[in-house]
């Protein structure tokens, strides 16, 4: 049902290869994907790979990534990360979970994002939205991301893991919100054991919906449904117009 609701779900960070996705994921901490997507074209035009970034001047990196916040710490992380990739992996981002988590600042969540989206290796990405919804759906009883990941992996086929991650996160950002889920306007309400945790009145719930599902955004939603392969670009365009709020 989530696949029907969000046929256009996708990775929300822009990237062209594993290195770019790894860097973008590091930059995405404590900020919106839109902001990251605004700075990465400049960063990658100047430093297209781990080798060039490892040799970059720290102050130059800081200046470029400043809009993403915590720019000093992030610049240092990217520098160290790139150096390690050059020293230990000959400048190429490794393609296994075991190797990725040895990189500084790369935990299971980041590693799974990179594996699932840049290497095509199935993975469940447990961020705050996924963890919350997995509990509400009754897929897990745990708050520990590693346990959530393991519990959900047992319920679904590996081929579905990456897209499932995107769809659940999309649902968490638009409908099953942290404080006030819009149960009365939720496509999976009949299947959800937590129905009633949020607003059940359909008209009131409708008003809680976000982004392309929000009242007044019908044209945007229709455009994304009609152009599922291009939905990321459509979303980026409208969010940039709306001063950078990321779904
Ligand atoms: S019914 Fe409510 S709690 Fe369940 S998924 Fe929908 S919005 Fe979330």
From TrEMBL:
The protein's matches in SMART domains, at most eight in alphabetical order, are given as: ENDO3c, FES
Q: What class of enzyme is it?
A: lyase
Please share the entry's free-text remark on the cofactor.
Binds 1 [4Fe-4S] cluster.
Q: Which positions in this protein are listed as binding [4Fe-4S] cluster?
A: 176, 183, 186, 192
* Entry-linked SUPFAM superfamilies: DNA-glycosylase
Domain called HhH-GPD: residue spans:
27-174
**KW tRNA processing (keyword) present:** no
The cross-references to InterPro entries, in alphabetical order and at most eight, read: DNA_glycosylase, Endonuclease-III-like_CS2, Endonuclease3_FeS-loop_motif, Endouclease-III_FeS-bd_BS, HhH-GPD_domain, HhH_base_excis_C, HhH_motif, Nth
Report the catalytic activity. 2'-deoxyribonucleotide-(2'-deoxyribose 5'-phosphate)-2'-deoxyribonucleotide-DNA = a 3'-end 2'-deoxyribonucleotide-(2,3-dehydro-2,3-deoxyribose 5'-phosphate)-DNA + a 5'-end 5'-phospho-2'-deoxyribonucleoside-DNA + H(+)
Gene3D superfamilies from the UniProt entry: Helix-hairpin-Helix base-excision DNA repair enzymes (C-terminal), Hypothetical protein, domain 2
What cofactor does this chain's UniProt record say it requires?
A: [4Fe-4S] cluster
Q: Which UniProt keywords apply?
A: 4Fe-4S, DNA damage, DNA repair, DNA-binding, Glycosidase, Hydrolase, Iron, Iron-sulfur, Lyase, Metal-binding
Enzyme Commission code(s) on record: 4.2.99.18
Q: Which residues form a coiled coil?
A: none
HAMAP family cross-referenced by the UniProt entry: Nth (MF_00942)
Q: What does this protein do?
A: DNA repair enzyme that has both DNA N-glycosylase activity and AP-lyase activity. The DNA N-glycosylase activity releases various damaged pyrimidines from DNA by cleaving the N-glycosidic bond, leaving an AP (apurinic/apyrimidinic) site. The AP-lyase activity cleaves the phosphodiester bond 3' to the AP site by a beta-elimination, leaving a 3'-terminal unsaturated sugar and a product with a terminal 5'-phosphate.
The similarity comment for this entry is: Belongs to the Nth/MutY family.
Annotated protein name in UniProt: Endonuclease III
Protein source organism = Sinomonas flava
């Amino acid at each position: 049902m989530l696949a029907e609701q969000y046929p256009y779900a996708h990775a929300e960070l822009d990237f062209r290869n594993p290195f770019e996705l790894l860097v973008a994921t590091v930059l995405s901490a404590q900020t919106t994907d839109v902001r990251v997507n605004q700075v990465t074209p400049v960063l990658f035009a100047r430093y297209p790979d781990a080798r060039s970034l490892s040799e970059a001047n720290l102050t130059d990196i800081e200046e470029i990534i400043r809009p993403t916040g915590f720019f000093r710490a992030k610049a240092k992380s990217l520098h160290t990360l790139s150096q390690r990739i050059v020293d230990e992996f000959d400048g190429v981002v490794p393609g296994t979970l075991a190797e990725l988590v040895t990189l500084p600042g790369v935990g299971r969540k980041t590693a799974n994002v990179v594996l699932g989206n840049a290497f095509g290796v199935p993975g469940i990405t447990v961020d705050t939205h996924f963890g919350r919804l997995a509990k509400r759906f009754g897929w897990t009883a745990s708050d520990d991301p590693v346990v959530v990941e393991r519990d959900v992996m047992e319920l679904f086929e590996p081929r579905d893991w990456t897209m499932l991650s995107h769809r659940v996160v999309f649902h968490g950002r638009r409908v099953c919100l942290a404080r006030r889920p819009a149960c009365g306007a939720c496509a999976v309400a009949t299947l959800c054991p937590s129905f009633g945790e949020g607003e059940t009145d359909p008209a009131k719930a409708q008003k809680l919906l976000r982004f392309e599902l929000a009242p007044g955004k019908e044209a945007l939603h229709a455009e994304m449904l009609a152009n599922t392969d291009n939905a990321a670009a459509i979303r980026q365009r409208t969010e940039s117009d709306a001063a950078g709020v990321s779904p």
